[in-house]
């Protein structure tokens, strides 16, 4: 009880608590601390989900699911490790699961619906050029496996180091590098086939 | 950063800064130039901070609502699981009461006992007036009287006497 009061006082006194302190506050029963954490991480989680899933509405639903899981499993988080790594692991797993389910659904159902949806989602972009690059990425990344796609997004778009990605996915760094190498190869082939003007810009690494 | 500064930075091969990435997200010419220096900038330019449709506030509000909803649901489930034994207890008590009542109702009447003076005593049996009347009435199989009026109704091959009017008969017959 005394520790709860101390944490609540600390929350009121210092508005800028770090992630671990916020987690401690939530565990002590302070639900407003969860809202603070939620607002702080929304952009990161949604961004990752959107890039992996490629659809704004689905990405929003998946991100919400990630935060619900976070709320339910917060007591399992080990404070010795980086909170972002743990959160990214959760988000990546949920997004990969979603992609796998969608792929199996799409193989059974006509994909016309998805194509229409993709066009609608593209409208949320800022500029025409960004929409175009986004569209190119969405199209060519369809050829990647969910895990390859997640690794590519984390490495090339979120700019996370391979070591961090390996911690997030719970695999070896060499596995991450392999996935990344294969992903780039597949994407390069797709670019040359479907968007040759972009293939010239984005060259395969040796 | 403007286009000239971007060109300069690219010539110096400066690592992609947030400002450079911000610029090439909106400027096609600079994106092309940047990709010639580093092809990965093509997709790295997509890695900006994104907000969910409707904004962060709405998103957070929806998540918090779902959390409250789930918590309430869980609390109700918990209360239900506690109340179940009590409900079963009440049902069992009611069932036991009904069974006892029906058993008592079917129990045989007390057997005749003997009073102190040795005379057998039987508890009077309560019967309705109709049943009592039908029990006391005599069954008449043959009847003949010169001053009687007999009402008969044909019933199959036989005749069925339904009423006898005779002044010589007792009044309560």
Quick structural summary:
The complex is a heterodimer of chains A (206) and B (173). Chain A is mainly α and 206 residues long.
Please supply descriptive tags for the structure shown above.
heterodimer, A: 206 residues, mainly alpha, 78% helix, 0% strand, B: 173 residues, two-stranded antiparallel ribbon, rod-shaped
Descriptive report:
The complex is a heterodimer of chains A (206) and B (173). Chain A has 206 residues and is mostly helical. Chain A contains 11 helices and no strands. In chain A, helix 3 packs antiparallel against helix 4 and helix 5 crosses helix 9. Chain A is elongated and about 55 Å long. Residues 112-126 of chain A have low confidence and may be disordered. Chain B has 173 residues and is mainly α. Among the domains of chain B are: 3-44, no CATH class; 51-103. Chain B has 6 helices and 4 strands, in the order αααααββαββ. Chain B has helices at residues 3-11, 18-24, 28-37, 41-44, 55-106, 129-136; strands at 113-114, 120-121, 149-155, 158-165. The mean pLDDT of chain B is 75. At the A-B interface, helix 3, helix 4 and helix 7 of A face helix 3, helix 4 and helix 5 of B.
What portion of residues of chain A is helical?
Answer: over 70%
Structural class of chain A: mainly alpha
Average pLDDT reading of chain A = 83
**Looking at the structure, what is the overall shape of chain A?**
elongated
- N→C terminal distance of chain A: 60 Å
* Assembly classification: heterodimer
Which structural class do you get from the secondary structure elements of chain B? mainly alpha
């Amino acid at each position: 009880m005394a520790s709860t009061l101390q944490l609540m006082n600390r929350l009121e006194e210092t508005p800028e608590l770090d992630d671990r302190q916020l987690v401690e506050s939530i565990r002590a029963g302070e639900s407003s601390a969860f809202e603070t954490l939620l607002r702080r991480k929304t952009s990161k989680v949604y961004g990752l989900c959107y890039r992996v899933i490629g659809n704004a509405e689905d990405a929003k639903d998946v991100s919400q699911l990630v935060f619900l899981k976070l709320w339910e499993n917060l007591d399992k988080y080990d404070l010795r490790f980086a909170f972002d790594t743990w959160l990214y692991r959760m988000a990546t797993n949920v997004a990969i699961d979603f992609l796998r389910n969608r792929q199996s659904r799409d193989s059974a159902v006509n994909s016309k619906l998805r194509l229409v949806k993709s066009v609608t989602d593209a409208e949320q972009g800022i500029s025409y050029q960004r929409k175009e690059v986004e569209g190119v990425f969405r199209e060519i990344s369809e050829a990647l496996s969910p895990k390859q796609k997640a690794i590519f997004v984390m490495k090339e778009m979120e700019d996370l180091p391979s070591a961090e990605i390996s911690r997030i996915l719970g695999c070896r760094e060499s596995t991450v590098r392999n996935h990344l190498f294969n992903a780039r190869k597949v994407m390069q082939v797709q670019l040359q086939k479907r968007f040759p003007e972009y293939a010239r810009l984005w060259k395969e690494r040796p | 950063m403007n286009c000239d500064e971007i060109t300069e930075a690219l010539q110096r091969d400066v690592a992609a800064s947030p400002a450079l990435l911000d610029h090439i997200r909106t400027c096609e010419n600079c994106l092309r130039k940047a990709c010639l220096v580093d092809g990965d900038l093509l997709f790295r330019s997509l890695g900006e901070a994104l907000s969910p449709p409707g904004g962060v506030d709405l998103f957070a509000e929806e998540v918090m609502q779902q959390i409250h909803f789930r918590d309430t649901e869980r609390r109700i489930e918990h209360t239900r699981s506690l109340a179940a034994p009590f409900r079963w207890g009440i049902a069992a008590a009611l069932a036991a009461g009904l069974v006892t009542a029906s058993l008592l109702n079917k129990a045989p009447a007390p057997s005749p006992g003997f009073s102190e003076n040795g005379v057998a005593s039987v508890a009077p049996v309560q019967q309705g007036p109709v049943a009592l009347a039908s029990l006391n009435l005599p069954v008449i199989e043959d009847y003949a009287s010169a001053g009687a009026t007999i009402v008969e109704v044909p019933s199959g091959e036989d005749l069925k006497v339904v009423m006898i009017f005779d002044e010589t008969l007792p009044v309560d017959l």
